[in-house]
Design a protein that fits this description.
heterodimer, A: mainly alpha, Cytochrome C Oxidase, Chain A, 16 helices, 2 strands, B: elongated
Amino acid sequence: MSQPSYLVDTGSRKGLMAWLTSTDHKRIGVLYLVSMVTFFFVGVGIGLLMRLMQLTPFQHLVTAQTYNALFTVHGVIMIFLFVIPGLPAVFGNFLLPILIGAKDVAFPRLNLASWYFFIAGAILAVTALFTGGGPPDTGWTFYAPFSIKSGTNVTLAVFGAFVLGFSSMLTGINFITTIHRLRAPGMTWFRMPLFSWSLYATSWIQLLATPILAITLVLVIFERLFGIGIFDPSKGGDPLLYQHLFWIYSHPAVYIMILPAMGAISEILPTFAQRPIFGYKAIAFSSMSIAGVGSLVWAHHMFTSGMSEFANMIFSLLTMIVAVPSAIKVFNWVSTLYKGSIDFQPPLFFALSFIFLFCIGGLTGVMQGALAINVHIHDTYFIVGHFHYVMFGGTGFAFFAALLHWFPKMFGRMYSKRAIYASWFPLFTGFNMLYFGMLLLGLMGMPRRYYVHLPQYHALHVVATVGSWLLALGLLMFFGSLLWAIFRGRKAEGNPWGGVTLEWTLPSPPIQENFEEIPTVTHGPYHFGKEEQG
Amino acid sequence: MSEHVHRDDFGSRLGMWLFLVTEMVLFGGLFIAYSYMRAKYPAEFHHAGMELNVPLGVINTLVLLTSSLTVVLSIVAIQRSEKARAMGLLGATLGLAAVFLVIKGFEWAAKFHHGLYPNSAHLATLPPGEQIFFGLYFTMTGLHGVHVLAGMGVLAWVLAMIAKNQVRADRYVHLENAGLYWHLVDVIWIFLLPLFYLAA
């Protein structure tokens, strides 16, 4: 190859500075990867500490107030710094231009600025832990009126989340413009790989939902600083308005988290089954309809808040409807494997784990959408368990699968497949002990956010805590073996998995501007030399 | 990194429009809050609205509309390579924006003088609906004021680019985008005027 790989510094700056000032979408993707995995492990550490607390029924190790801070900070870090940017920021940045045959995103400098917004927001959020009245203790949802009364450092933490929202919005603008303007000749909408479709849907949610969060957080800040009264019942305000505004963003946000994960799975399955994806258009449109319908279900978080019965029924119905496009995807994925020539490799292994865990997460979600059941399990560990099945078992495992799938492309190295398989066992076992334990605890009535528990919940809490240790062990083995591979792994070929989308036509790692010459696309994305598609 | 020679004015405008969508949704959240509260306290909103100075509000509307016109004329001028006129018109926009802020400042000062601001002792004696009205008034006009300041910053930056010939007859998408942003600031004000000043 005449041009050097993107990992080689060619400009006047070298080393770290060359990375921190690079507008190359691939380098920015790697910057996000490094920063997010770091935050992820901080979040894991806090999670482990909370599980350690629940090893006994009594208060020990930390105070009740610290426990409140722990679950708040765990949520803020994991949601705003890991799962929301998650796949779009890392794999979206790295792959989107390559997948559609472009040299970079539409606004490369804005892209780098988004990363700096991300880091600035993260620094603000972390600063909030150690300054002012101490770490926020409101839970990650910052519910009013407690969030406007709490003496802890809510203002700064909320401002951090506001800045992170900017990062998310700007990335969304960048991706939409990129997809509209920079597709290679012949790359029609229905020849785009499904990961690009999922990024397109996600970007629209980021664009339309994030500003609502931004303004809600600004109102909380104003409320705390100036006492404007909108969420304060003593001044005629209404806390329920806060909940509505918050969930108008935060429910679509869970689709920001899961859609790109589904997109990555839709890339992995056809590659390892060596056949075109089943129902390409159905999957593409289901992404868009999840984005659409998913924006109309927010109040299912508020069934017990005192809304009208009529509103409850409407939102319950809409919630059930969102399950349809999600199920369309699952059936299409499974059908893709049927009669495929399956090559069993680590990415497929994790992708199948994703489908299994996501089904549990999704079906428990439908349970919660039913009004009668919701009243019983509201604010219990069932909610916590469900959320972790979708977000960790879903997005998290898809993130791992995507990392395994594209790792050789990103770093030009191959990891030890045996080490990855070995990490899967503690990871998967620990995961299910921990979160299935939580589902059962919730059904038994264990409320969330309590720092102690009654004796009847003790046995399952012990199972869950032991599970958390296994889970952490699996994570360390997983990321340890990848880290080792970055430096010591054997060189990877350009196309180790036999993929047919554009990224696999490039060398590993790709050259600086991706393509020596912009390719002309003549067929659909999953053209395995057999059936013509799209 | 090598510089991209790639240039896509349509793409830049598309990006700007998408950004404007986010701004509209941002204020949309406030409009939701406003409509909910107004439906809850119609009489109080009517009464509190009488405190606002309608002539000043209308004058400010005219000032902002005129400033939008001068931006448009500035784009026309740059398309005709009339650099001095383009800069003059853009300068006029900046001047009008400053006039808007000064008038707004006087209005705010008068409200503070009367004790009509969040958390004031006087406001606390008024009915809850009126407290909310002024909470929303300061939040929404304040946030709009921040947008005016941001818009002025963007316009001043483009003005400097015109001076350096970086924005010219064959390359003026920066000015167009700054103008689009300025129109948005204008449009939001056009909604704020009836919602607050004409609420009575």
